[in-house]
Amino acid sequence: MNDMTPTREQRTAALEGMGCKRKRVEDIRFTQGRGNYVDDVKLPGMLHGDFVRSPHAHARIKSINSEEALKVPGVLAVITAETLKTVNLAWMPTLAGDVQMVLADGKVLFQNQEVAFVVATDRYAADDGINKVVVEYESLPVVIDPFKAMDPDAPVLREDLAGKTTGAHGPRKHHNHIFEWTVGDKDLTDAAFRKADVTIKEMISYHRTHPSPLETCQCVCSFDKIKGELTIWGTFQAPHVIRTVVALIAKIPEHKIHVISPDIGGGFGNKVGAYPGYICAAVASIVTGKPVKWVEDRIENLTATSFARDYHMTTEIAATKEGKVTGLRVHVLADHGAFDACADPSKWPAGFFNIVTGSYDFPVAHLSVDGIYTNKAPGGVAYRCSFRVTEAAYCIERGMDILAQKLGVDPAELRLKNFVRAEQFPYHSALGWEYDSGDYHTAMKKMMEAVDYAGLRKQQAEQRLAFKRGETREIMGIGVSFFTEIVGAGPSKNCDILGIAMFDSCEIRLHPTGAGIARVGSKSQGQGHETTWAQIIATEIGIPADNIMVEEGNTDTAPYGLGTYGSRSTPVAGAAIAMAARKIKAKAQMIAAYKLEVHEDDLEWDIDGFRVKGLPEKTLSMKDICWAAYNSVPPGMEPGLEAVSYYDPPNMTYPFGAYICVMTIDVDTGVYKIKRFYALDDCGTRINPMIIEGQVHGGLTEAFAIAMGQEIRYDETGNVVTGSFMDFFMPTAVETPHWETDFTVTPSPHHPIGAKGVGESPNVGGVPAFSNAVNDAFAFLGSTHIQMPHDYWRNWRAAKNLGVFA
């Protein structure tokens, strides 16, 4: 062999395929300030829109007077619900089967609800205009506490639903009730509790929080009256879905709607659904004939766009006295706000909350969820999690710690005793899921060994003795969390949005010179798709990742896809990419056989091309095959080398992980210190370890924020009291702990490359780890459960209530 001939290792490295720590190609433009975001879109004659918003949480609108606003220089129009009624756009459908006001129609139902849309020549004029619109309100009684929403004398919130005893998901049992959803065997579960040696019951609340992406929600709408075409640039996590929604609402033929999602500064579920700003900007452009931009500010984003969580979970576990779980019973009171605008698959009004059995082998379980209306902003999106999976993981992980405390056993050992065993996979849970693969015991034991779990418990015992002796005022908590997430929505047999199956798609086109472009139905908001999607293609077809351009977000060029959220990109879009690449490889093999004058079966794949079996010197690279595809294909074959794949997954994927948090809390001040945080994730096949580590760091930082202070809180009259970053906890590098990351690899057996997804996992597992650490610390003082968030003041109050100052 010639000394200059690359080795197999060099050829593999040159591809920068799966498993390579390839640097993010997106960062070249981002670090130089060359990103292209919605607010960077500037069109000739562009106008600006802004909202008049309600100061009340519940009030009747007596009148809206826009006379003075229209006198403001630059103000061109003031749009109200009455305006929208003329084009049948006063209400819009939600993804959850409800309807929602675009602009307040007769009454407002939450603070900062959109009341009127002012259109002006610039943002300053629009802001001046909204301050001149006079709205007369008549205050109405407010429902903020979800536990009072279905009281007999609770005020009627949704007057548009008067007399309707059924909704999109079945019967309604109160005027503020949305749905009741149940799953599992109630009779067998009740029997298990009657026979149990030990039971626990606890109300575990997951407070309302918000995704709060760095870039707020925004859009630019431009209607071409000549062509009858509407172009929308927007912060859309699912641009094709937005196109379909706009077609349904505005009655514009879908082929005349062009949706473009440029660079997006974070999404986390907040940018999945449709907001009034999109509809109003589109209407304003149609009316004025000019492009209209709408950009919300931070307070508007926090108070009026889709929230997350607000689940109140009555959790019961039955077990033997030896600690073997025998049954699980959970009831959820789900606060959906003023409208049911959850971005869940249609058949799942509570998302995938029935993953609440977690990583444990519960023989029986029963779950019931009641959704209710309150005077809060609508939403219920999957904030860095699959649909309601974070709530489910928090519920079961707190429940297992509470059970361990009652039994007087170590929480890690209790988990080991109850894990689904490796030989049980594929595992059918008591609440209907089929877990694809897992090795929970190995992951848990690796975590315990890595942190010297026994040593930590010994250190904790010594710290507690020191506290009793008055030598320290700090208490130490060790929070164990083991989660199984369900991601990759999803199979058409049980997942759709607006009746559209939740498949995803990829089109790959290779050029004659051996480069190519991949257009994908997903949409990155920071996940690094331009980097990792090219790596999948590189491994599959032997073209270097640097020679593959990845394009997303333009509905005119990308094949129809359901977008990026709920950690579905790799499990669904990633699979579509691999399958499209394999179609190309199959055609390439036929071309190679023709050029090498052998039968296809005589060829074998070799990193970046084909070689003849038994004659390794007789090869044809993919680069050469690309050239041949455009000038010398076999007789009867079409020229070119491209393929499209629409991937409908046969099952979800089930990533899992073992996390531990070590924390101390000063009982006199409530100040906590994160001493150590170790996170082990198993996401199946790892495409890019560096990007995985970045995803885990980001998700853990959000989990830290949620558990330790991040909350959308209301006072009793419905005012949002945490509506800016002055009050809503947004951790910086100063507060964020150091993260230790680790992994095991258990590939998904049904995924083309064995990948499971990882972007949401650290939020799912991180929140219960932090909360369990706080609760483990306070358990020493006699506490059973302290609700999140665990900020300094709440920690101090918990210590006070437990009598440490007596």
Quick gist of this model?
The protein has about 800 residues and is α+β, with helices and mostly antiparallel strands. Helices cover about 25% and strands about 25% of the residues.
Written account of the structure:
The protein is α+β, with helices and mostly antiparallel strands and 806 residues long. A seven-stranded mixed beta sheet has the order 3-7-1-16-13-14-15, with helices on both faces. Strands 11-19-18-17-12 form a five-stranded mixed beta sheet.
Number of extended strands: 34
| Structural classification | alpha+beta
- Taking all Cα atoms into account, the compactness measure Rg is 28 Å
Helix content percent band: 25-40%
Strand content: 15-25%
Tell me the overall shape: globular
Strand arrangement within the widest β-sheet reads 3-7-1-16-13-14-15
How much is the average pLDDT? Answer: 97
Give unreliable regions as ranges. none
Write out key terms for the chains shown.
single chain, 806 residues, alpha+beta, five-stranded mixed β-sheet
Write the layout of secondary structure elements.
Elements: H1 8-15, H2 27-30, E1 47-53, E2 59-65, E3 75-79, H3 81-85, E4 91-93, E5 99-101, E6 107-108, E7 114-120, H4 123-130, E8 134-139, E9 166-167, E10 170-171, E11 177-184, H5 186-195, E12 198-209, E13 218-224, E14 229-234, H6 239-250, E15 257-260, H7 276-288, E16 292-295, H8 298-304, E17 308-319, E18 325-335, E19 365-372, H9 389-407, H10 411-418, E20 427-428, E21 434-435, H11 440-450, H12 453-468, E22 474-484, E23 496-497, E24 500-501, E25 504-510, E26 516-520, H13 529-541, E27 548-551, H14 569-596, E28 603-605, E29 609-612, E30 615-621, H15 622-629, E31 641-647, E32 656-666, E33 672-682, H16 689-708, E34 740-743, H17 761-779, H18 792-801
Parallel strand pairs: 1-16, 14-15, 18-19, 26-27, 33-34
Antiparallel strand pairs: 1-7, 2-6, 2-8, 3-7, 4-5, 9-10, 11-19, 12-17, 13-14, 13-16, 17-18, 20-21, 22-32, 23-24, 25-26, 25-31, 28-29, 29-30, 32-33
Helix pairs in contact: 9-17, 13-14, 14-15, 16-17
